[in-house]
């Protein structure tokens, strides 16, 4: 097998799904590829360089949504579409949320981001305000993905969680019980997204 960056990245992503981010090491990846660890340095300067390439590759399947809005979409429609695409990409890989934190915004996303800022500016946003909104929404997306992926980790053998006294905190206990019975992460994400977009639409000027 010819060793090049795409092969290394694809193998690393498959290994990530198997062992998680904490279990991924250059030595383990090299063994998976049937080479010695120093061979990887011909293609990557180190683990951080590899993780950035993996994060970029994680989004490849969603780039069509991230690059261009659907015909006739307004800024809110596209912001929602981009948010869902980013979340799908991160959920497609084990520990994808944590992997995303290693990603630097690649230049090939700049045209789409520029167009989104233009659409929001035309809707009445100041550019700095629009960028702040995009960053804030990014925090919601990343936080929800990390929370979901952390919740899927096996529980510690001795960990039953903190028990809430229903006599002292009846509402909190009821809410905690409902979440323990089975959290609907899709619903939670969509609720937060809807609240965020509604808030932007009601920003100064009552933007539509």
Identify the CATH architecture of the largest domain: Orthogonal Bundle
CATH topology of the largest domain: Tetracycline Repressor, domain 2
Q: What's the N-to-C terminus distance?
A: 55 Å
Quick check: average pLDDT? 86
Q: Profile the largest sheet.
A: none
Q: What general outline do the C-alpha atoms trace? A: flat
Spatial extent as radius of gyration: 21 Å
Query: Helix segment count?
Result: 10
Q: Looking at this structure, what is the CATH superfamily of the largest domain?
A: Tetracycline Repressor, domain 2
Q: What low-confidence regions span 5 or more consecutive residues with pLDDT below 50?
A: none
Question: What share of residues are in beta strands?
Answer: under 5%
Structural class: mainly alpha
**Level of helix content?**
55-70%
Structural summary, described in words:
By secondary structure, the protein is mostly helical. It has two domains: 1-58, Homeodomain-like (Arc Repressor Mutant, subunit A, Orthogonal Bundle), CATH 1.10.10; 62-201, Tetracycline Repressor, domain 2. Helix content is 63%, strand content 0%. Helix 1 crosses helix 3 (47-58), helix 5 packs parallel to helix 8 (127-151) and helix 8 (127-151) runs antiparallel to helix 10. The protein is flat, with a radius of gyration of 21 Å.
Keywords:
single chain, 208 residues, mainly alpha, Arc Repressor Mutant, subunit A, Tetracycline Repressor, domain 2, 2 domains
What is the strand and helix layout of this fold?
Blueprint: H1 5-23, H2 26-33, H3 47-58, H4 63-67, H5 75-91, H6 96-100, H7 110-122, H8 127-151, H9 170-180, H10 185-201
Helix pairs in contact: 1-2, 1-3, 5-8, 8-10
């Amino acid at each position: 097998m010819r060793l090049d960056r795409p092969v290394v990245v694809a193998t690393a992503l498959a290994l990530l799904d198997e062992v998680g981010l904490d279990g991924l090491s250059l030595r383990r990846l090299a063994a998976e590829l049937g080479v010695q660890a120093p061979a990887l340095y011909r293609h990557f300067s180190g683990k951080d360089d590899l993780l950035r390439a993996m994060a970029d590759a994680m989004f490849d399947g969603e780039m069509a949504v991230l690059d261009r809005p659907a015909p006739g979409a307004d800024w809110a429609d596209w912001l929602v579409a981009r948010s869902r695409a980013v979340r799908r990409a991160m959920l497609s890989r084990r520990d994808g949320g944590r992997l995303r934190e290693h990603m630097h915004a690649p230049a090939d996303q700049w045209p789409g981001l520029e167009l989104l800022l233009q659409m929001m500016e035309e809707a009445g946003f100041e550019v700095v305000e629009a960028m702040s909104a995009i960053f804030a929404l990014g925090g919601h997306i990343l936080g929800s993905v990390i929370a979901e992926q952390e919740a899927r980790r096996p529980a510690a053998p001795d960990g039953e969680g903190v028990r809430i006294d229903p006599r002292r905190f009846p509402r909190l206990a009821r809410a905690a019980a409902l979440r323990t019975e089975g959290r609907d992460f899709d619903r939670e994400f969509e609720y937060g997204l809807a609240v965020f977009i509604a808030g932007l639409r009601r920003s100064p000027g009552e933007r539509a």
